[in-house]
Amino acid sequence: MKLLDPSKPSLHVFDTLESEVRSYCRSFPTVFSRAKGYKLWDTAGNEYIDFFAGAGALNYGHNNTALKQKLVQYIQNDGVSHSLDMATEAKEQFLERFQKVILQPRGLSYKVQFPGPTGANSVESALKLARKVTGRSTVVGFTNAFHGMTLGALSVTGNKFKRRGAGVPLHHSVSMPYDGYLGSDVDTITYLESCIADTGSGISLPAAVIVETIQGEGGINEASIGWLQRLEKLCKASGILLIVDDVQMGCGRTGTFFSFEQAGIKPDIICLSKSIGGYGLPMALTLIAPELDIWEPGEHNGTFRGNNLAFITAAEALRYWESEQFTNEIMAKGDILRSKLLEITKSFPELQGEVRGRGLMQGIAFGISGLAERICERVFSKGLIMETSGTDSEVAKIMPPLVIDEEGLRKGLDILEQSVKEIAHEMKEQK
Ligand SMILES: *Cc1c(COP(=O)(O)O)cnc(C)c1O
């Protein structure tokens, strides 16, 4: 494995003209120009394997050929591009396809809200609606949760650094321990249950609970099926709405279209974004149990709720979900990923690595501070794009496009293994 061309493109323009808030261009310091499938190229011609997939917005790969064809054709025909929430042919087709391919076969019944094009827009609309429906204000979020960067979404996000960015107190939310937060022998649902039932807990009856089935940003923490089922039961029994934020784990990331399918739960509200548009185009959905759809017309508005280009690619992307085959492929690739990660953690026990996640959302949590960041830096120098996750960036996270082939997956994993090996060796030398 050769190091990439050392004459990396300059980031001068970004360093001088773009705000200090920029982040990913610091982790991946080059200038990208082309992308296809699971590969990216920079302006110097270096090739990268993408184990990041736009933080989950590129599940179907960069410039997916079938999606691109539909999109180009639609643009060529002067199809409507922007339309607020007017009725358009593109939206009609998407709604019908989503009903037929996703909801109906799963026995799910939801009204579809287009809340604005981002995940945070979907979360905000879910929180508003839950408060409107119940007439209550408190929403329970979980430790290490991530729900987006707007004020409502931040109020149920765990990360201190991100919360502080709000600049105002984040109220009307309570943070509860996620599954496993207090160690494997503490049942955190029992704790939540007593907080809700006990008149002395200091916590008023919440409007809703918002949860991720796997915390993608928070360190690939996975809630067990039993925990999710008991959470649903507790919510139902207490008249609390259950919101599943499937913005990152949905659209097949864990194998099934929705990440909660394995648990067999039926959330009251579901947030989807990132890969729902299919082509990396901004789009989000809030799925609402029909009896909760008490919005007044225009009560949650937004200029960019009608991204028809995204509706076109979103409808086409649903082809992947017409049979079980795609799920089976994701699971099979997930198995390859898992066994390689286990092999790596076994080979280098001194790095204190723990494999986490499932499907094509997995990673290694390291017990040594700064190690995951160092690994991500090293793999980048060898042409692999991977990011860290967790409050202390302690997890090296692997989330390739779901359409990656076995060859690409193995190639990327070889770069990871080689990099871990080098770093383990360097650490020994330093001792
Ligand atoms: C990315 C993400 C969001 C926020 O989505 P944006 O489009 O960045 O606003 C919300 N929830 C989860 C779980 C996410 O991963």
TrEMBL record:
Give the similarity note: Belongs to the class-III pyridoxal-phosphate-dependent aminotransferase family.
List the CDD domains: OAT_like
Q: Which Pfam families match?
A: Aminotran_3
The record's gene field reads ectB
This one is known as Diaminobutyrate--2-oxoglutarate transaminase
Does the record bear Transit peptide in its keywords? Answer: no
Which cofactors does it use?
Answer: pyridoxal 5'-phosphate
Enzyme Commission number(s) from the entry: 2.6.1.76
List the InterPro entries hit by this protein, alphabetically.
Aminotrans_3 (IPR005814), Aminotrans_3_PPA_site (IPR049704), Dat (IPR004637), Ectoine_EctB (IPR012773), PyrdxlP-dep_Trfase (IPR015424), PyrdxlP-dep_Trfase_major (IPR015421), PyrdxlP-dep_Trfase_small (IPR015422)
Q: Which UniProt keywords apply?
A: Aminotransferase, Pyridoxal phosphate, Transferase
**Main EC class the enzyme belongs to:** transferase
Q: In which pathway does it act?
A: Amine and polyamine biosynthesis; ectoine biosynthesis; L-ectoine from L-aspartate 4-semialdehyde: step 1/3
- Organism of provenance: Paenibacillus hexagrammi
State a single Gene Ontology molecular function: diaminobutyrate-2-oxoglutarate transaminase activity
Superkingdom field = Bacteria
